């Protein structure tokens, strides 16, 4: 009888730990505030866009952008904002890069006291449209991030 009670107790504890892990995973992205406009991009991230592509032009999510390598209109940006989010001092920016083989570019950093820290980037063909998928891809190492050194380090 003790063995059965012990087995039942072990099963109960392991199930509660699994439920706790599931709840932790669900709560990962709760406190992210999402922004829907390129006008919400902090100036520090605009500098990064400038450094990556030579200009900071980016289209909003519902605006036209040059998605192909056939550039017909040089006034249209070659990037389109897909997601911008903030959680405390942590920022995430995702955009689609047009050209041969459209892909997503992911940028994450911390902005404290107007200074940028812990800058990491990655590019992928994976669909990076929301915080849940981004967190999942990072934790599964499907989205590989490269740390970029800044003068603050």
Question: In words, what does this structure look like?
Answer:
By secondary structure, the chain is α+β, with helices and mostly antiparallel strands. Helices cover 30% and strands 27% of the residues. The protein has helices at 2-27, 43-53, 131-139, and strands at 33-35, 79-87, 90-97, 103-112, 115-124, 146-147. A six-stranded antiparallel beta sheet has the order 1-2-3-4-5-6, with no helix packed on it. Mean pLDDT is 83; it is low at 16-27.
Count of discrete domains: 2
Rg, rounded, reads: 20 Å
Cα end-to-end separation? 61 Å
Please count the beta strands (DSSP E, at least 2 residues each): 6
Q: Percent of residues in beta strands?
A: 25-35%
Number of helices: 3
Order of helices and strands: HEHEEEEHE
Question: Order of strands in the sheet with the most strands?
Answer: 1-2-3-4-5-6
Pairing-aware structural class of the strands and helices?
A: alpha+beta
Shape estimate: globular
Q: Which stretches are poorly predicted, pLDDT < 50 over at least 5 residues?
A: 16-27
Helix content percent band: 25-40%
The assembly state of the depicted protein chains is: single chain
Give the biggest sheet.
6 strands, antiparallel
How confident overall, as mean pLDDT? Answer: 83
